[in-house]
Please model this.
Amino acid sequence: MPEKPFQPSRMVDPNPPDNDIRVDVLIIGVGFAGGTLAAALGDTPLTVCMVDRADPRDALDATFDGRAFAISQSNQKLLEGTGLWPRLAETSAPILDIRVSDGPSLLFLHYDHQAVGDEPMGYMIENHHLRVALHERHKAQTRLTQLAPGQVKTLERDGGGVRAELSDGRRVRARLAVGADGRGSDTRKSAGIGLTQWSYHQTGIVCTVRHERNHDYVAQERFLPAGPFAILPLMGDVAGAANRSSIVWTEREDLAPAMMALDDDEFAQELSRRFGAFLGDIEVIGPRWAYPLSLQFARETTATRLVLIGDAAHGMHPIAGQGLNMGLRDVAALAEVLADAARLGLDIGDAATLERYERWRRFDNTMMLAATDALNRLFSNDIAPVRLARDAGLAVVDSIPPLKRLFMRHAMGAVGDLPRLLRGERL
Ligand SMILES: Cc1cc2nc3c(=O)[nH]c(=O)nc-3n(C[C@H](O)[C@H](O)[C@H](O)COP(=O)(O)OP(=O)(O)OC[C@H]3O[C@@H](n4cnc5c(N)ncnc54)[C@H](O)[C@@H]3O)c2cc1C
Model:
């Protein structure tokens, strides 16, 4: 792809005498994790350079990626604390309740947000709106430099610092490199960090539907033999369609290509069979997307002057809508560790600083990887005894309020040793 110059918001002199860009933090990958970290650090005295191989303007196209993310209540606070929320508030749908059901079983689990307070359990944020919010926030932050599209050709790290050379010859020096370049992370590979991974042999089919009746801001998760089928409430779009939902339909990987190849009417029929009639007639609006589903995690998340965050460190099944939530928790913890180190005059890239981050995030990420993996194995089958046991489990949780509240607080991201940004405090 020919490299187009991207007009960054300026923070450091891009042409120092030796032509190297010098910053505190080099972020490789400006997706949601990397982009939110930049927005968080942009409010500290630290200087940041962001590099992404894609042109950020391409991602501003509304048809770039059809996903919408269920973001927990605590991560909504992070978006507020990083100045992203004002751009998202009107377009994000609150998730008031969550209803979990198992195929045709009459047993279900219903989480009502009022059981734990007045606030929504989370929000549905559309990919497009999040990208626009990040783009606008970055432009307003004077300590950020963005080099995109830009491809890191070499990344050298040692006790003294980080030196990156891009394929177009631009060079960056930093005290710390952050690999936020997603599941296929070249940063992780360049550091020789191994990956543990397995495929779920499932595909996540994503699309948006308009329906006759209002969703009342209830997120529905229905477990079907091929995998979970989620119906997630969205706000109305610019055309005024108030009753919209995002669908994440998990299908067997051998059947998904045939589903994706159906014409619009046949696809809508297949979707309706799974969706049911509770929201009246439905209509698929816009394109459909397919994502192969797998679990993966990096065997290390730190190395000399390097840290991995987001999907570069851990990629999970979307069954609980937690992949990006975990990435944003990485962001909140890393931003706090770096801001505190800078305040104390410590080296933000040394081993002690990175170890503090690594210890903070290890347990949370490991538990979520294990939980999403176990849930998918438990629910993505039609084995009668397993079905009976899990339906009984749903009914038991539904009938024990303290247990139910504990699960709700987990879904809201309110459990654990939370960084300041997730508690609604300033960095
Ligand atoms: C179907 C589906 C539904 C999901 N729903 C939810 C949900 O409801 N809630 C939730 O929390 N999560 C959800 N997720 C997970 C979520 O999509 C991911 O966790 C999240 O997008 C990861 O963000 P990231 O910034 O870490 O990585 P990415 O979004 O992959 O961003 C990586 C960035 O790095 C750039 N890049 C890549 N390689 C290089 C390179 N070599 N050099 C420079 N730049 C590079 C890319 O261009 C990109 O901008 C879902 C996932 C799927 C598949």
In short: Residues 28-34, 51-54, 67, 69-70, 151-152, 180-182, 186, 204, 206, 248, 291, 310-311, 318, 321-325, 327 surround flavin-adenine dinucleotide (CB under 6 Å).
